[in-house]
Amino acid sequence: HKILKLEEEVINLKSEIDSGVETLAKIAQIFHNFSHKYRDKIVKIHENPSKNTKGKEELHGFVHNMVANIKEVFDILTKNDCSVSIKLIDNNLIRTLCRDAISERTRSAIDRQLPQYKYDMNTAFKTILDEKTEKSYYISNDLKAEKCYNNANSNWNSYYNACLVAPIRYISIERGDEKSAVIGFICIDNKKGGFNEVGKDALASFADHCFHLFNFYFKQKGMG
Question: How far apart are CA 19 and CA 1, in angstroms?
Answer without folding.
Answer: 27
